[in-house]
Give the backbone structure.
Amino acid sequence: MLLNGKELSTKIKDDLRIHIRNKAYDNPPGLGVIIVGDRKDSLTYVKMKKRVCEQMGIISKTIHLSENSSTNNVISAVDIFNTDDSIHGILIQLPLPEHVDEEMVLTQVDINKDVDGFHSSNIGNLAMDKREPLFTPCTPLGCIRLLDEYKIELQGKNAVVIGKSNIVGLPISLMLMKRNATVTVCHIFTEDLKSIVQKADILVSACGQAQMVKGDWLKEGVVVVDIGISHIPDPEDPDKTIIVGDVDFEEAKEKASYITPVPGGVGPMTIAMLMENTISAYEKLKF
Amino acid sequence: MLLNGKELSTKIKDDLRIHIRNKAYDNPPGLGVIIVGDRKDSLTYVKMKKRVCEQMGIISKTIHLSENSSTNNVISAVDIFNTDDSIHGILIQLPLPEHVDEEMVLTQVDINKDVDGFHSSNIGNLAMDKREPLFTPCTPLGCIRLLDEYKIELQGKNAVVIGKSNIVGLPISLMLMKRNATVTVCHIFTEDLKSIVQKADILVSACGQAQMVKGDWLKEGVVVVDIGISHIPDPEDPDKTIIVGDVDFEEAKEKASYITPVPGGVGPMTIAMLMENTISAYEKLKF
């Protein structure tokens, strides 16, 4: 059965749009977007996010810096949004160019505008029992909302997470722990990954390796959440590329009880959660 | 082979004492200790910590509140130490009585005096790759230092942590992840714990269940770090109690390549790390 992120995200966005319209705020919520360089995928994501903002009734402002910007240049852009009263959430499109100190930039974001949830205090509160972050990172939050929508039990389940990046693998692991799953966090140094994945009741993959997880890696009935996004040559037209996840979907769908498609699974949920976080930031600041 | 925390902690404390003596600071480092109620074990720990402070050349002040103190009373005590210039580290002896909101109290500690490392921002920075907390919780830090002392490789190893408490299980899991172990976090909702533990190259137990982990739960050559402290009747004198860990030591030592004794393993390391964190807090504030 498909975990249909496209459908759920549309419903969430519809609800948010109606919420904003009904509130009839004097000033609209505002999202500040910072993008550095001209990565094609990043430009596409930013464009999508801006378009969804418009649909929601959220204003968006973009600061587009050149590829060779310094860490200080990017921090200055963050400061502009930090002090701009019309901006309630700040999104820094990742990855930043390698020469920019990503951590230094991310920690500069005003915690009250940290709609990406990457502030150390937000991550700490996400990790700790009986504490709640102001904001939860959008992609992990989207995964959990999708699992909840399909009433998938997490408590006591063996959850295997592939990848431990600050922005996806780590926070989703922390969220699954908080929901009382038994969580195993795997990564580039993990030995015999296949046999670990074979024990998973819930598999969350965020390693960016196209179709790495094969059907025989999966237990019958597993729930698969695929966060990977890779471009590979289209087998039907070598001049084109197609988008695939970390999991070989055709093989996995024979084993899984639930599975996210790529695209149309976690991706659209991420944007919906960004909208939700932005509106939440606005309402926290305002009231 | 024993992971001798008593020996290593003595060496660390000796080094710290010499360090402080050589620096000949005008004012000594100061540790503020808050204890609520009269739990016998807590009183013992506080007494031990104060005695070690004295040996180090660290002054210590104690606020001892009665069992029926409110959350606000405890927070007021924290504020006294927050604003006391002679105090550089604050230790709140846990657990607090059930009616006191522990999280509210812990988050009140000035981050610069958070020698227990429980501030959300410290936990967030502990969790995240490429970030460093100001302070790391003492018990998990003591475990890692002990493993490092015996040159036990963590990267790529299967590490199983039993317990996910904010103060021990969670932070040690985060530290093992950061060191590139493949970490499985188990807890009260985990099913078939024994078979998970059987895969562990490194087992860290912090669940407080006396001698729960038996010899047949362990893989040959496993490294066992036992953080549990339980009092059970002395089999040789039923009027007395003895201290044991979460792991059945007599059985486990036949399987383990390295194992911490209880007592004399992690316990003394915790106090040594508290001293180190307090001196570090002092030097950070001073310089």
Chain A has a mean pLDDT of 97. The domain at 138-267 of chain A is CATH 3.40.50.720 (Rossmann fold). Residues 158 and 278 of chain A are 32 Å apart (CA to CA). DSSP finds ten helices and ten strands in chain A.
